[in-house]
Design a protein that fits this description.
The protein has 761 residues and is α/β, with parallel strands linked by helices. The chain folds into four domains: 199 residues, Alpha-Beta Plaits (2-Layer Sandwich); 94 residues, no CATH class; 315 residues, P-loop containing nucleotide triphosphate hydrolases (Rossmann fold); 49 residues, Orthogonal Bundle (Arc Repressor Mutant, subunit A). It has 30 helices and 22 strands. A five-stranded parallel sheet has the order 15-16-17-14-18, with helices on both faces. A four-stranded antiparallel sheet has the order 2-1-3-9, covered by helices on one side. Strands 6-8-7-12 form a four-stranded antiparallel sheet.
Length: 761
């Protein structure tokens, strides 16, 4: 057997040495060819970590009929086409086709029996659908020449070189050794597609596909991505049909038809429906290598069916305004609550210091941009967390590092979020040297973190990212980011996830001695637009361990004036020549050296509080908790209140360390409390916005149900329809709000309660 066979078929490489998927070997139940049974036994091998095991299996069973699929699978549960993760080869069961009739010389020619071959054209392109389409074109182009016209489909079984073809034993012939006859060059997919265009009889456009939009207009186009995100947010049923993996026996056609019909009823645009349909797990057209035009034709049939006409009952602006003004709006209720919350007592406000590093940084940053000051304060605290989180910890019985995470939000891009972020990023970058390296970058995977952080025991690794809603969306939708959110949540506590692999276990013991006991100061800073972030989240996301750890800095952009529009020319002064910036860097460097003299970086020491300062901190934490517990929006507030108290403590320690103080004094606690007030306000604002989004969506759904029936809907029907996704108290509250806004009315008829629509004004 050629060891190069599988290496040639699977040229891709994984991130940080991780496996790409599973290669499969298929055998007959008894190992020998039997047309009555088929090669139904599947053996999966993780690729590339089990490559040696795969080759050894083939060598050990070389006398048997062994087949493979020239693709890697997502998991080891099935070798069906919809489980394919990666593929790089076009292939054909050339059968009796004279090879000199091929238009492209194959990368691999495998002789499976005398003068019969399997052929492979390997590319650098990992696109199963496109590769399968070319395979189909080759099979049909040469069908009259002896090529198997059915040997092109995704998941096709093909014989493995170095094994045996026992098919002819039944007629008294010796087994034939399957062998590689030729090993040549690779191809580009584009060149193969040019040489083998889709045959005319296959390229015939389905009826109704003439008006299909260009691919770039719907496939990952900005507007279709945005519309699909909103649909998934407001319609979990549609998202479930789109994202759920097919189960054995599931009718793909029926699932696809139902998805397209629901998209039509929802009022989805045809371009976005095409995008959703093509990317759906149930898309038989993509799985089978069929054309996009066929899906478009089915989509048009679904959208043209009168039974799938969209329910045009969405709320008008005036109606939404009336509903949002309700006292039941959770956003309004939280705003009222925030007006009454004070962490600092009135007689303490004049004691808040204004001469800390944070104040000096904000004063300087305000000369560089007109971004809101709350953004600069978040940046200053992030710097302190990065620099001093390598030396200090809170004086608590259980581990409490100085890691702080921030989420910077504003209503528009004009809020200068990115500008404010890059001020402190650049400053921290200039503070780095051979001993200190803080910045991790703005793009990372869970696998990369697992590889990098164990080598940085106890040190700071700062991850920053603009457009936070994109990261949140990617963590849910992209397979290579699966688990990143959970991994980062673990890192907040200061511990690095360790995974011991077989190759590590064989290494020197010194390399794995610290497994499971590696620390980190993993700091995270995200920026985003308020509406996009809150639309991408639910209150469940907000209450989860991941998002509850973020301190939020939210502000409106400054008013735009003519002076603001005036751009100053570059004055020739480099940032390294800015004396105020240099003074800040010197202050940080000197404070860092102060702590380094007593504590090696990465080896934490507790920084104690003065007794009075400690007592005031505990009092503040209790008051924050009590204020949230007694509020009717406690479910939204409580997940963050305990962490807010912990963040307040961390901030106080960091401020003291920046001043080279070995004990945290009352002034440091007062400053931290002052900061926590605006963080708490911003955090609760986001919670209110998220809850308002969910609250609005529920009303839209209930109102659509009622308005779509001329005679109204019975109370029993409403509860039966929505009880699975809403609590009964939520349904009752939403009905009351809709009635109070004059959008529906309640009718008691024959001892039945019905809700009917009210004509629009």
């Amino acid at each position: 057997m050629s060891f190069a066979f599988f290496d040639t078929l699977f040229p891709g490489t994984g991130n940080d040495g991780q496996d790409l998927g599973y290669a499969v070997l298929a055998l007959f139940p008894e190992g020998k060819f039997d047309p009555a049974k088929g090669p139904v036994q599947s053996h999966f091998f993780a690729w590339p970590s089990q490559k040696d095991d795969l080759v050894a299996f083939c060598l050990h069973n070389g006398d048997k009929d062994i087949y493979t699929v020239p693709a890697l699978f997502k998991n080891n549960s099935s070798r069906k086409a919809d489980n394919i993760a990666h593929m790089w080869a076009v292939y054909a069961d050339a059968d009796s086709l004279p090879l000199d009739r091929l238009r492209a010389e194959p990368t691999l020619i495998v002789e499976t029996s005398p003068d019969r071959h399997h052929t492979y054209w390997v590319t650098a392109t990992d696109n199963p659908a496109a590769l399968t389409a070319v395979s189909r074109a080759i099979a049909h182009t040469h069908a009259q020449d002896g090529c198997d016209p059915s040997g092109w489909d995704a998941g096709q079984l093909l014989r493995v070189p170095g094994t045996s073809n026992n098919k002819y034993e039944q007629i008294g012939l010796d087994p034939f050794e399957v062998k590689i006859k030729r090993h040549g060059s690779t191809w580009t997919l584009e060149k193969l597609a040019d040489l083998y265009p889709e045959p005319a009889h296959l390229a015939k456009k389905p009826e109704g596909s003439e008006d299909m939009p260009l691919r770039r207009e719907w496939h990952y186009a900005a507007e279709t991505v945005e519309e699909s995100t909103n649909i998934f947010h407001y319609s979990p049923d549609i998202y479930a049909m789109f994202s759920t993996e097919l189960v054995p026996g599931q009718d793909r056609s029926a699932t696809m038809w139902r998805l397209l019909c629901e998209l039509s009823r929802y009022g989805c645009s045809r371009k976005t429906a095409m995008f959703i349909g093509w990317e759906a797990k149930c898309n038989k057209y993509r799985i089978d290598g069929r054309s996009e035009e066929e899906l478009w034709a089915e989509l048009c049939r679904a959208f043209d069916d009168p039974a799938n006409a969209p329910v045009t009952t969405s709320l008008e602006a005036a109606e939404r305004t009336r509903l949002d003004a309700s006292d039941s709006n959770p956003e309004n209720r939280l705003k009222s609550f925030l007006e009454s919350v004070e962490i600092l007592h009135e007689d303490e406000r004049h004691l808040v210091p204004e001469d800390t590093f944070i104040d000096r940084y904000v004063n300087w940053a305000c000369t560089r941009t007109d971004a809101p000051e709350i953004y600069h304060r978040a940046g200053a605290v992030t710097i302190l967390s990065a620099v001093f989180g390598e030396f200090g910890s809170c004086p608590t019985k259980f581990d409490s590092n100085l890691t702080l995470w921030f989420l910077l939000l504003g209503p528009t891009t004009r809020a200068r979020k990115t500008t404010a972020m890059m001020l402190w990023v650049d400053l921290l970058a200039d503070l780095q040297d051979q001993k200190y390296h803080y910045l991790l970058g703005s793009d990372v995977t869970s696998e990369a973190l697992s590889a990098i952080l164990p080598k940085r025991d106890g040190r700071t690794s700062l991850f920053y990212r603009d457009e936070a809603h994109g990261l949140l969306y990617e963590q849910d939708k992209k397979r290579y980011l699966a688990g990143l959110r959970e991994h980062m949540t673990e890192l907040y506590g200061g511990r690095v996830r360790m995974s011991l692999r077989a190759d590590q276990a064989r290494a020197d013991d010194s390399e794995t001695a610290n497994s499971g006991n590696v620390r980190t100061n993993f700091v995270m800073f995200l920026c985003g637009t308020l509406d996009q972030v809150t639309t991408a989240l639910t209150i469940e996301d907000y209450q989860s361990g991941h998002l509850a750890r973020f301190l939020v800095a939210e502000a409106d952009p400054p008013p735009m004036t003519e002076d603001d529009m005036y751009a100053e020319q570059y004055d020739g002064v480099d940032r390294s020549e800015d004396p105020f910036r240099q003074r800040l860097m010197d202050e940080l460097s000197n404070s860092r050296s102060f702590w380094e003299r007593s504590t090696p970086p990465g080896k934490l020491r507790m920084v104690p509080f003065e007794p009075a300062a400690w007592d005031r901190l505990q009092k503040a934490k209790w008051e924050i908790y009590q204020s949230a517990k007694e509020n009717d929006q406690a479910e939204a507030l409580l997940p963050t209140t305990d962490r807010m108290g912990t963040s307040l403590m961390k901030a106080a320690v960091l401020i003291a360390m920046a001043e080279r103080e070995p004990r945290v004094a009352m002034r440091h606690v007062f400053k931290a409390m002052h900061l926590a007030e605006e963080w708490y306000t911003s955090t609760a604002t986001i919670a209110g916005r998220i809850m308002h989004s969910s609250w609005s969506a529920r009303q839209e759904e209930i109102l659509t149900k009622i308005r779509s029936h001329v005679d109204g809907v019975t109370e029993a029907e409403i509860y039966a329809r929505f009880r699975s996704k809403m609590q009964e108290k939520e349904i009752e509250s939403d009905l009351a709000v809709l009635m109070k806004a004059g959008l529906i009315r309640k009718v008691i008829d024959k001892k039945r309660i019905r809700y009917i629509r009210v004509s629009r004004l």
